[in-house]
Amino acid sequence: MQDTFCLSVNSKFSFGAAAGKERGLHYLTSLAADMKSAEEDAYSYTPNVSLSLPLGMGNPCLATQYHTLQSSPVISVSSCHQTGYSLQNDNHAASSYYLPHGLRPNGAPALESPRIEITAYSQYPEDEVEESNSEDHIIKRGVNSIVTLTLPNADGYRDPSCLSPASSISSRSCNSEASSYESGFYNYDNSPQNSPWQSPCVSPRGSSSLLSCPHAGVPTGSPHHSPSTSPQIGAVAEEGWPAQPRGSRPNSPSCSGGNNGGMGKRKYSFNGNTYRQTSCSPNQSPIPSPHGSPRVSVTDESWLPNTNQYTNSAIVAAINALSTDGVVDMGEGIPIKTRKTMLDHSSSMSLKVEPGGEELGHDGELCHEDYPSRMALKKENYCGGFLDVPQHPYSWSKPKPYLSPSLPALDWQLPSCSGPYNLQIEVQPKSHHRAHYETEGSRGAVKALSGHPVVQLYGYMESEPLTLQLFIGTADDRLLRPHAFYQVHRITGKTVSTASHEVMQSNTKILEIPLLPENNMRAIIDCAGILKLRNSDIELRKGETDIGRKNTRVRLVFRVHINQPNGRTVSLQASSNPIECSQRSAQELPLVEKQSMDSYPATGGKMILLSGLNFLPESKVVFVEKAQDGHHLWETEAKVDKDSVKSNSIVVEIPPYKNQRISSPVQVNFYVCNGKRKRSQYQRFTYLPPNVPMIKTEPNDEYDTLGTVGLSMHSKPYYSQSRLTPIMPVADPDACLVGGYPPCPPRHAAMPSSSPSSSPTLHDLSPVAYSKCLPNSPTHAAPLGPVVHPIQETPGHPNLAHPSSPDHSSSLGMLHSHGSPNHLNSPGPHGYHPIYTNSSPSSSPVSQPSTPGGPAESPYVQGYSPTQTAASSTQAGGSSPSLLPEDTSPPSMAITVKQEPQELDQMYLDDVNEIIRNDLSSISVHTHA
DNA sequence: GCTCTGGAAATATGC
DNA sequence: AGGCATATTTCCAGA
With 0-12 CB in 10 A as exposed, 13-18 as middle and 19+ as buried, what is A542? Predict the structure, then answer.
């Protein structure tokens, strides 16, 4: 195994060499490489791989958008990996895969070649792994050894190390994020990989670890490190940060300090201390907890149990890891980045090589030492028990049992409702929240207009508490997925009333919050801040394909996994409205939070009220229709009623569509522009055929505030609805679909437009198509619809079979059978899921559709509606008229869409092309290797 | 003494 | 290469 791994690694490295952009390619290549090696283990999904490549490559169109790029690669990868994992029993093998660091869950390979990792994966969690940096230090993992490399400069990534160390406690957590994986406890993915997978546990994958992890958390700790590895690592891992050490980011000066960033605000100041503290997550963790203590104690305990539920996730996690885009764990590894600034630091930092065992090294060191204890501490906070366990990877796996391996990957789209259950965001977060850097202290918890966001699970009548998971997701046009540049940050302190604990999964930090029956399964989210990771750090990650620049919108994504008597687990997800996280953007960029209508006959002429922020008298509202490939098909400026312009609202006249005789709805976008580069994200709008009854989907509005006034803003506050009808009412149809459960049938049925008011249906659908919908659906989960579909669609992976089994399919999204870890492994549902997930998410709607690989592939898809798919694909592009009715539904989407995409898209395309070329060539080369 | 914030200087990046 | 504009990240300082 090792060898294989090594090989893979090497390959990766080589890839790594490639420019960051190439990552995508790298992935592919790497994947391929991995595959090969893996093959052994894995059985290679090579095929898949190949597929993936092709996809990306092949379909320029798809590819065009970065979506594609990313996605495709990812997908393939993931699938592969996963499979591999599943298949492989070997822990090692599996681990290797995962670990591969390179591979992120996302599948992204770690391209960064610089590092050289030698290790047996098994042990190491990716996290740790990491990276060496440019220097190529080699780290050994040895047992522990994950070791990694250090990066000389690199400092690595932020991730880990930086994070934790850094700043304030809260920040720390952040750190964790990055490194989170490591962090262990909970890193589902990562750890899993490391140990988990390996772990004997049942299914290779995950079973073990992942899921459980969290709680297991305890184990986790260990997990991280993988058994083999030293606990230290593990410790580190937990914090995740620890890992960082290595990483500390290169750049930042702090880094070395680690984190400076981590540290907090100023690196300098503390340095030594800081670092340790901060860096070492240990401190952090401990700290946090303390603060949180109250919470902790209470919550933790209670939940813990719940956590188990997650367990499933193990598998899932694994899968996710694979699938997810992004994130890969590998990541961390990458240290590479070097900022100019960093350099110096880095050197110091980087240098740290971690000894195998210790690896964690400096940071780690600091941390490490602490870690263990820290870990414990932290954990204590959370779970107490878990924490303790920490280290041995294996152990965790054990604990995890409960967990169903199959918790859905973080980039899977899940419905907000299924059967009687409905997960709703009762109170949406504010549209702006200045995220803090590792180098800063926490900037506090995300707030709502009044108080804090509130999430509630309706329809759950059991007495057993559940765990609400929260992570930071993307808010762009693509399918919802963990945001690579932002991590949720645990806030603790006197002002925090909600207990929480962190878990890492696939490079994504997840905040777990107890959902208690005594509180009506309602949770006030006052414990979640947002950490911004440096773009350079993330972009250097092996598998990362997203660009951080101007990618500053996020959404809070909530998930809950409900174990069913039949052994299955219902997973629900609800995402918030988009949240702008940059300081500058918050101050300058116009933001459309709500729109009074999202569809209208092609004749236009009606006034539409937009509510949001930063509107100016000179603001312009531009309607645009883009082709799938991003080309502008039509663009026109709407007439703004300048007399009514307010900073938080603007009234414009809907311009007539270029073709007033459309026979089917046409999806377009519009944005508010305050200047050359000051444009809001795209908002959706659908032109309807003259005779078609209008369907308003209203945006979700959670933002009430804004819209409030508004005229007839439709904003429909989901929550409101939800409140009304706790159960399904609102729920997204999609969700329903997805869920094994009868899901929210109602909605589905309704969907069509049917209920304008509810329009959920629409949303659902649309979502599918568009990720954009998000905003709208946010509450529910914009994602849902889309998600689901994608997944189903994924069908592309028919293999998985989901298609075949509706249940499964549903399950995929929603349900997971605890019982059968196999799923995960097996092609079965899980198997694919991941795949799907991957593909879909990553790929983005577009790809998916396209992915088509098998159109036929998924029955589901079809079932659901090819249209959707199609639409989605188109949509992805931006507007695609094609979307149609469904799209209409999408209206909901209204809200969020990033503008950037356009430009980026092209960029991506170009890059992609290059990459592809390079890859091709490189691949051949690698092959040799 | 610490966290949370707002503001802005210092850097980076892109054109 | 240099300059400018914009975006990101790091620092400061006040509450």
Answer: buried
